């Protein structure tokens, strides 16, 4: 900027595993755009050329924004990896069927969140206030053949799910019962 150069940023909202595939994957993808003075036309042309859907937003806290993006992409990837491991460990499920099960559920959940928001999209035992099922999950995750990260991850994620369930109308009594089970050692 000090030298008269127009400054802008384009952040395609896609994880890029292989840089060569990125251009193809970008078609129709959303992108967060930070426009500097005098860069609007050039940036619009650039995004249109790449086939990006521009989300013109103002990011106040870049580190928090990037942490959220890392959770949405890398966190979900790690979670799916764990789900595939647990499905395989449950027996009679090979790696390919386990991947299909995990990604089918995650895809449906992602579509539901996109359509209705996280609170409305939440399903499962925490949403229902089903203490017995949550307790059974915790017991299964405590088994020696399951790593401690799985139990810790389940607890953290189900505590976040509990917050969504409360927002979605789970009764205070059921919410307290689920919270107690998740907090118990």
Can you offer a commentary on this structure?
This protein has 9 helices and 3 strands. Helix 3 (62-89) packs across helix 4, helix 7 (131-141) runs parallel beside helix 9 (172-183) and helix 8 (148-167) runs antiparallel to helix 9. It is mainly alpha-helical. The mean pLDDT is 90. It has a 3-stranded mixed β-sheet, with helices on one face. It is elongated. It has helices at 19-26, 40-50, 62-89, 95-116, 118-121, 125-128, 131-141, 148-167, 172-183, and strands at 9-12, 30-34, 53-55.
Calculate the mean pLDDT score and round it: 90
Helix and strand content put the structural class at: mainly alpha
| Straight-line distance between termini | 55 Å
Largest sheet: 3 strands, mixed
Outline:
With 185 residues, the chain is mainly alpha-helical. α2 links the parallel β2 and β3.
What labels would you give this structure?
mainly alpha, 185 residues, 3-stranded mixed beta sheet, 9 helices, 3 strands, elongated, 6% strand
Secondary-structure blueprint of this entry?
Blueprint: E1 9-12, H1 19-26, E2 30-34, H2 40-50, E3 53-55, H3 62-89, H4 95-116, H5 118-121, H6 125-128, H7 131-141, H8 148-167, H9 172-183
Parallel strand pairs: 2-3
Antiparallel strand pairs: 1-2
Helix pairs in contact: 3-4, 7-9, 8-9
